[in-house]
Amino acid sequence: MGYVILGILALIALFALLVGAFKLFFTYVQPSDKVRQKHQGKEEADSVFMKKYPEADVNNYWWTFFLTGSMISLAIVITAFEWTTYNKVTKDLGEVKKMDQFEVEPPQTKRKQKPPPPPPPPKIKEVEDDKILEDEPEIQDIDIEEEQAVDIPEAPAQEEETDEQKVFKIVEDMPKFPGGQKELQKYLAQIKYPPIAKENDIEGKIYVRFVIDKQGNVTNVSVARGSEKILNEAAVKHVQNMPKWQPGKQRGEKVKVQYVVPISFQLQ
Fold first, then answer.
1. Residue 192 has pLDDT above 70, yes or no
2. Domain residue spans of the chain
3. Which of the four pLDDT bands, split at 50, 70 and 90, describes residue 52?
4. b/e per residue, 114-152, with b = 16+ CB within 10 A?
5. Which residue, 124, 123, 167, 170, is CA-closest to 255?
6. Model pLDDT, residue 218
7. What would be the CATH architecture of the domain defined by 167-265?
8. What is the DSSP string of 51-75?
9. Residue 134 half-sphere exposure, CB side, CA atoms within 13 Å?
10. What is the pLDDT of residue 144?
11. What's the whole-number mean pLDDT along residues 54-60?
12. Three-state SS for 206?
């Protein structure tokens, strides 16, 4: 940038010098006829040693041109020495922290299981026609003197399911784990990963079904939907070791309630 400005200043100075030279030239130079008429009859005009008339002698202006050029050159040199350039200052943006990369697992979609095909219709066996007996059976007359009472045994009454045996799935007050739902999630996350499953990179998700009785005990633990056998056994054992729950209530009375929890085995 500095060299460009110096070049521009030099061109301006050269242009000014040329303009001054032409101005002086056209100001002082006169036509030759007028110069001859002016000096006609004078002794210096007839001198053989005189090369030029004073009006046409360019050497008379050399000192003016020399001073003008020296001043312009000196001005350019001073400007070049005094010219300052500035370094660009870049702003410090500070330390750039790398953002941790998070892996987002795609949502697990449940595959709709196709209903099993209907069973084939049972084969109809052909049965031979009953043979007609030609001989008629003998019918004997039996005299019944007294009416004999026949005891017909009564059918056993179906036992109605009492409240003691009934298990609810949804009640007014659902059972509560000690500490609430967050503590239940913490307890389920603390399950011990079976070493054999970890060595063989076995993963899975198990849904464990159990019943909270009227006293809050965990009973009837079973696998509702499982994975590998070793993972199923570990999930059932972990649920069986749960502490007592706050039992569920229906219409103010404690009842048995069925509950299902998911347990995930995932290697990190």
1. yes
2. 2-82, 167-265
3. low
4. eeeeeeeeeeeeeeeeeeeeeeeeeeeeeeeeeeeeeee
5. 167
6. 92
7. 2-Layer Sandwich (3.30)
8. -S-GGG-GGGGHHHHHHHHHHHHHH
9. 0
10. 38
11. 60
12. strand
